[in-house]
Amino acid sequence: MFFNRFAPVAALVAVISASPVAAQESKSAPLAKQLSQALDAAKMDIIAAADPETGNYVAALYIPGTQMLVISGKFGDAFLGPHRLSKKEYRELYMDLQGASVAGSKLFAQDAGANGFALKPTGGGAADTWEKNSKTIVFDGAWKKAKIPELDYVKSFTEADEQYARVLTLLLAQAKSKTDG
Question: To 10 degrees, the CA torsion angle through 111, 71, 175, 128?
């Protein structure tokens, strides 16, 4: 009788722990941590790099322990990105990407905690956000409130996390070149 009374609770715990939102691993988390450490070591708060695969430029504004704002986009002027990078004008490149990137090429991540994307904040922290093609998704775990099916929410997270991890890899390589050389 004791076992039967708690069977529904055990079933509910099994369903909750099997939830896609609960099970999702972040690919960007270890990379964000490494980038934060590399920027701290180089005493930098901003970094930028070219993306040879897409022709985009990427830049990150790092606020230690608070957040990382990362942007990626293409310039209409083929001279602007290489010029800014060659002069190490990372802050200017970041600002240029915010305002002058080609429509449809801009990606923007707000990584609360500068610790990589998470499907929902932990410990009551701020949520991460991802903007692509002027559409923003907030990874706060409130997929019902956003009127998004849970699987679509998880799919959006997976795609955003993979793209964010890719951009972080480019920025990490650039940051390491600053501390290694």
Answer: 10
Under a CB-based contact definition with an 8 Å cutoff, are residues 93 and 71 in contact? no
Task: Tell me which amino acid residue 105 is.
Answer: S
Instruction: Output phi, psi for 137, to 5 deg.
Output: -125, 135
Per the domain annotation, does 165 fall within a domain? yes
Residue 12 lies in a domain: no
H/E element, 76: none
Residue ranges making up the domain that contains 90: 25-180
19: nearest Cα among 119, 90, 113: 119
pLDDT single digits (tens) 22-56: 556 899 999 999 999 999 999 999 999 999 999 99
Token pair in block for residue 88: 């190490």
Tokens 């990490």 belong to: 172
Q: How many domains does the chain have?
A: 1
Question: What is the tens place of the pLDDT at every residue in 121-169?
Answer: 877 778 999 999 888 999 998 888 888 899 999 999 999 999 999 999 9
Residue 27: C-alpha distances to residues 39, 44, 55, 118, 157 (Å): 19, 24, 23, 9, 11
